[in-house]
Amino acid sequence: MPVKPSARAKSRLEVDGVARADLARAIALDTLAAATACDLVAQVVVVTADGVLAREAATIPALRFVPEGEARGLDAAIATGIAAIDPAGRMPRAALLGDLPSLRPDDLAEALRQANSVPRGVVADAEGTGSTLVTAATGVEWTSAFGDGSLARHVSLGCAALSIPDASTLRRDVDTAVQLDAARALGLGPRTVAVLSA
C-alpha cells in the first residue's frame, strides 16, 4: 500500500473545519486496519515517507513499513514495496490504494478470492475509470499503472476486471468531499469518523 505523506496527500479533499493532513492520515490508517483484518492477507507492506503515519499505525498489527526512498509516484512506490518482500514473485501479490475509509475486510477478501483464478486482476473504482486494487498471481511479473483513467491501462496490461458489486466498499476511494460523502453512506472507519467529528 503506497501512502503519500499526509501534508501532500488529498489535495482535492476539502472539508470545512477539518485539517486535510489529519483527514488523509486517518483515511490511510482506516484502510490499513481493514486490510490487516482481512483473513486472506498474509502481510501488509506500507511504502511511505510519513513518519507520523508509522507512529500512529503502531496499534495496527502486522504492518511492515518500507521507506519510500527515491520512488516517484504510486507505481514506483508499489514496485519498491514489492521488491522489498517478494521480488521473484513466489507468492500472490496485491497493491491496494490507501484511500478507502469505508473498506470492510470481507469486501477485500472477496476480491482476493476472485483474483486467485486469474494471472492479473484489477478492481474498478466507483466511477468505473480508476483502480483501487491490482493483483498478480504467483510467478506473474508485477506491473501496475495507477492514476487517472487507470482501469483501461490495467486491462491493457492483462488485468482481468474482477466482478465486484457497485456497493462494495473496495470500490469507494476518496479524493473529493463528494466522494467522502458517498463513503460515509457505507460507514466510515473509526479514525476517519473521529477526525470529522473533532
TrEMBL record:
Asked if the record carries the keyword Nuclease, the reply is no
Its EC number(s): 2.7.7.68
The protein's matches in InterPro entries, at most eight in alphabetical order, are given as: CofC, Nucleotide-diphossugar_trans
Q: Under which main EC class is this enzyme filed?
A: transferase
Question: Could you tell me the superkingdom of the organism this chain comes from?
Answer: Bacteria
- Cite the entry's keywords alphabetically: GTP-binding, Nucleotide-binding, Nucleotidyltransferase, Transferase
Q: Which GO molecular-function terms appear in the entry?
A: phospholactate guanylyltransferase activity
Q: Does Nucleotide-binding show up as a keyword for this record?
A: yes
What NCBIfam families does UniProt report for this protein, alphabetically?
F420_cofC
- Name of this protein: 2-phospho-L-lactate guanylyltransferase
